[in-house]
Amino acid sequence: MEYTTLNNGIRMPMIGFGVYQIAEQGATERAVSDALDLGYRMIDTAAAYQNEGEVGAALKKSGIAREDLFVTTKLWVQDFGYENALKAFNISLKKLNLDYLDLYLIHKPYGDYYGSWRALEKLYKEGVVRAIGVTSFWNERLADLFNMNEIKPAVNQIETNVWNQKHSEAAFMIEHGIQHEAWAPFAEGQNNIFENSLLKGIASKYDKTTAQVMLRWLIQRNIVVIPKSVHKDRMAQNLDVFNFTLDEDDMARICTLDTGKSPIYDEMDPKMALFIGQFKIHA
């Protein structure tokens, strides 16, 4: 495993296991158990995924020492605001059956994210969260947040993949010491990504899969990745990305795939902002 060091000195694995869109009852617990068995030590979930309880059950059953795990969850928009955020954190911590979190993220840049951030600052100072950060904050929102508050985010988790490469966002985070983490590193399979001829050609050159090439390309950009799979063989393949290096030419060739927009959804679409703001995860 390779690690990055966050702006507060905490070490974070460069690859973790994501659990978004694992819908079947019990499937998340099985998948997390398989991932831990294979050697994953970073698990990424969220209140909005509604599977924190299954993640917690898998972590408990694993028998892995708590200090060897890196667990992330996220605060959903419905619970934004100072007091709401503190309550939501305690609910998530209880579901995960943990005494502390390694990383707690504000899930989207809408609503009272200022109040939420100040709650996260409080939790960080109390030591129940080792690092705090945000998800899907574009450059302007990220700058606004750390410019007007005390603690700078340690991580910004944003959609990053070969179709939507986020070079300007990456440069901004490097400039300000914020770790770039990619959600949807496989673009949720959009545009027949696993069969792309350029990626397949590069994969053949290194005797790897297209998925491994995409993950390696992100890691070489110093971007943390959290691929998801419910298939143990693919989980193993996704973890097996530290024994080869893409050369500069191949890195550049992959950059030519950038479309500059998301194949999943447009975060600048007002209809999407309305949907996110109105999406409820509890009564």
CATH homologous superfamily assignment: NADP-dependent oxidoreductase domain
CATH architecture: Alpha-Beta Barrel
Q: What is the helix fraction of residues, given as a range?
A: 40-55%
Q: What is the domain tally?
A: 1
User: What structural class results from the helix and strand content?
Assistant: alpha/beta
Supply the number of helical segments: 11
Major sheet size, sense and barrel closure: 8 strands, parallel
The tally of beta strands, per DSSP, is 10
What is the CATH top level name? Answer: Alpha Beta
By CATH, the topology is: TIM Barrel
- Order of strands, main sheet, comes to 3-4-5-6-7-8-9-10
Strand content: 5-15%
Shape: globular
Using the CA coordinates, give the radius of gyration. 18 Å
What topology does this entry show?
Blueprint: E1 3-5, E2 11-13, E3 17-18, H1 27-38, E4 42-44, H2 52-62, E5 70-75, H3 82-96, E6 103-106, H4 113-126, E7 132-135, H5 139-147, E8 155-159, H6 167-175, E9 179-183, H7 197-206, H8 210-220, E10 224-225, H9 232-239, H10 248-255, H11 270-278
Parallel strand pairs: 3-4, 4-5, 5-6, 6-7, 7-8, 8-9, 9-10
Antiparallel strand pairs: 1-2
Helix pairs in contact: 1-2, 1-9, 2-3, 3-4, 7-8
